[in-house]
Design goal:
Elements lengths: L22 H10 L4 E4 L8 H10 L3 E10 L28 E7 L2 H16 L7 E2 L1 H6 L4 E4 L6 H7 L3 H14 L4 E6 L4 H17 L3 E4 L10 H12 L21 H7 L4 H13 L28 H24 L5 H20 L3 H16 L15 H7 L35 H12 L14 H11 L7
Parallel strand pairs: 1-2, 2-4, 5-6, 6-7
Antiparallel strand pairs: 2-3, 3-5
C-alpha cells in the first residue's frame, strides 16, 4: 500500500442522530488525500454497509465493514439496569450507564457473517434502549473479526479512568485472548482531558501485555467546522436545548475526518499506532459477491419445491398454460361470447414468449412468488392499489391473479416488467389493502417461515422535521 494511514473508527449518517458524515463527500475527501481504505463503524447497526461498500468502490477506495457494538454490563438478557440515554450520546462522554462500546471489523466472509449475527442478536435478544450484546456472544462469533477498544465508553478505557489498572489489564487480556491476538487499544488525540489519561495508560498496558496500539480519530463529522452541526444532531436525540449558540462551548472539535498528514503529526509520539492501521487494512479483505462467474447479478430468492422430476421452470410453464385456459373460460362467461381460435392463438404465443424471457433471465422464482402473492390477495378479495398496474402487463401473472383482465387488450408491453436487454430484478410493488394486510403478512410468514419475512422501515430526517427539531434545539418558538 502507498497510503500511510487508514481511518478505522468512523460514524456515517447511518449512526442516527449522531454521525454527520455523508458518503459522497467522505469518499471525495478520502480520494483527495490519497487514502486507500476507510472503515464504517456506525453505532449498533449495519444499515449503511452496502451503500458504503458501493460508494467506496465507485471512488476506488477499499471499504472496511464494521460496527461499534454496545456491550451489556452483564447478560444481554438482563434489562433492568438503570439507564440514562444522555450518557451514551456524545463521543467524548464517559460511560456511566453500565454499557460499554467495542469496535468490530470484518476481515473476511466468515467475519462479515459473524458480525451480522452479533448485530442482529443485539436487536433481537439484547435490546434495552440500545441493541446490546454480551461477552458470551463475542466468544461465540469472534472468528474472522478484529476488535478495538473503542472510545472512552470502552470497557478497558472505563477501568483505566477509574484507576483500576488490574481490572483494565484483565479486560484487555480477555479481548486479546477471545479475538486470538486481533485486539487493539485505540489511541485518540481529541483534546478531551480524560482521553489523554487513557492514552498514557494504554501505552503502559501495551508495554506490559504486548497488546498493540491503534491510532483513530473516532470521526463523527467530515470537517472541523462541522462540529456544531453534530452537537445539534445529538441535542435532537436527547431533547436538549442549546440556549445561546454564539456562546455555546463544545468539549472538543476534534472528532473530524483528519488527513493522513494530520494523523501522523498528532501521533508522532507513537508511530507504530499509525503503522498498525495499515496492518489492519491489509487483514480486512472482505468483498461482497454480487455477481456470478458470467457477470450476472446474484439474487437470493425463497425456495420453491417443484414436483419430483420437474424443474421450477417446467412447473411455471405448465401451471401458466392451464391457468390461461381457465382464464379464457372466466372471461367468456363475463363478456357473454367466446374467444376465437385466432385470439386464443395470439394469447398462447404471447404466454410462451413471456415464459421464455422469464426463464432465460432466471426469474422463474420471482414470477412464482409474485403469482402466489397476487393469487392469494385475489382469493381474499383484497383490493389492489395502483402499483398493480405494472403486473397487468404480464400475462403469466394475470392468468393467476386478475380474473377479469388480459393484458393484450390494453396493449401493455412485457418490457414494462422485464427487459431482456437489461438483466435486473423486476421492479414490482404490491399494495395490500389496510383491512387485509395483516392476513397477507400472516400468510406469507406461515408459508415461507418467520426467518424469511421482514417488514423493513428506515427513518431519515426530512426537511420539515429538520426545521422543527433544529428550531427547538436552538431555542426558537415552534413554527405555527
Amino acid at each position: 500500500m502507498n497510503a500511510d494511514f487508514t481511518h478505522l473508527h468512523l460514524h456515517t449518517q447511518y449512526s442516527l442522530l449522531d454521525g454527520a458524515i455523508r458518503l459522497d463527500p467522505l469518499f471525495k475527501a478520502a480520494a483527495e488525500d490519497k487514502m486507500e481504505a476507510v472503515a464504517i463503524t456506525d453505532h449498533g447497526n449495519m444499515f449503511g454497509v452496502l451503500d458504503f461498500y458501493h460508494k467506496a468502490k465507485e471512488h476506488g477506495i477499499q471499504p472496511i465493514l464494521g460496527c461499534e457494538v454496545y456491550l451489556a454490563p452483564g447478560s444481554r438478557n438482563m434489562k433492568s439496569a438503570p439507564f440514562n440515554a444522555n450518557n451514551e450520546v456524545a463521543p467524548y462522554a464517559v460511560s456511566r450507564s453500565g454499557m460499554h462500546h467495542l469496535i468490530l471489523l470484518a476481515m473476511n466472509e466468515l467475519g462479515y457473517h459473524n458480525l451480522c449475527k452479533i448485530v442482529s442478536i443485539g436487536y433481537l435478544e439484547g435490546f434495552y434502549y440500545r441493541p446490546r450484546v454480551d461477552k458470551e456472544i463475542l466468544e461465540r462469533y469472534a472468528e474472522g473479526l478484529i476488535a478495538t477498544s473503542a472510545c472512552l465508553k470502552g470497557e478497558v478505557a472505563s477501568q483505566c479512568l477509574m484507576g483500576d489498572m488490574d481490572r483494565a489489564r484483565r479486560a484487555a487480556e480477555w479481548y486479546y485472548k477471545v479475538f486470538r491476538g486481533r485486539f487493539y487499544l485505540e489511541l485518540q488525540n481529541n483534546g478531551v482531558p480524560q482521553q489523554m489519561v487513557v492514552n498514557q495508560r494504554y501505552q503502559e498496558l501495551a508495554e506490559d501485555t504486548g497488546i498493540p496500539l491503534l491510532a483513530t480519530a473516532d470521526c463523527h463529522y467530515l470537517k472541523k467546522e462541522d462540529a456544531f452541526t453534530q452537537e445539534v444532531l445529538m441535542a435532537i436525540q436527547t431533547g436538549q436545548v442549546i440556549e445561546d449558540p454564539s456562546s455555546h462551548h463544545m468539549v472538543s472539535e476534534e472528532f473530524y475526518f483528519k488527513s493522513q498528514a494530520k494523523m501522523k503529526e498528532e501521533f508522532a509520539f507513537c508511530p507504530q499506532a499509525i503503522a498498525n492501521t495499515i496492518e489492519v487494512t491489509k487483514a480486512c479483505q472482505f468483498e461482497f459477491k454480487l455477481k456470478d462467474d458470467k457477470g450476472r447479478q446474484i439474487y437470493h430468492f425463497p425456495k420453491f419445491d417443484p414436483p419430483a422430476g420437474k424443474t421450477l421452470e417446467q412447473m411455471l410453464c405448465e401451471n401458466s398454460r392451464v391457468a390461461l385456459q381457465e382464464r379464457f373460460g372466466d372471461l367468456e362467461a363475463l363478456r357473454g361470447s367466446v374467444f376465437s381460435e385466432e385470439e386464443r392463438k395470439l394469447y398462447a404465443e404471447r404466454l410462451e414468449k413471456e415464459l421464455t424471457v422469464i426463464n432465460d433471465m432466471g426469474f422463474a422464482v420471482t414470477t412464482s412468488l409474485l403469482r402466489t402473492l397476487l393469487a392469494t390477495q385475489n382469493s381474499m378479495e383484497s383490493p389492489s392499489g395502483p402499483a398493480v398496474a405494472r403486473v397487468r402487463a404480464v400475462l403469466s401473472l394475470t392468468c393467476f391473479a386478475l380474473p377479469t383482465w388480459i393484458p393484450h387488450r390494453a396493449r401493455l408491453a412485457l418490457r414494462t416488467f422485464l427487459n431482456p436487454e437489461r438483466v435486473s430484478l423486476p421492479d414490482f410493488d404490491v399494495d395490500f389493502c389496510m383491512e387485509k394486510r395483516d392476513q397477507m403478512i400472516r400468510y406469507v410468514t406461515e408459508k415461507y417461515g418467520e426467518e424469511c419475512v421482514a417488514q423493513i422501515t428506515f427513518g431519515k430526517l426530512q426537511a420539515r422535521g429538520v426545521l422543527r427539531d433544529v428550531r427547538r434545539v436552538l431555542g426558537f418558538a415552534p413554527l405555527k
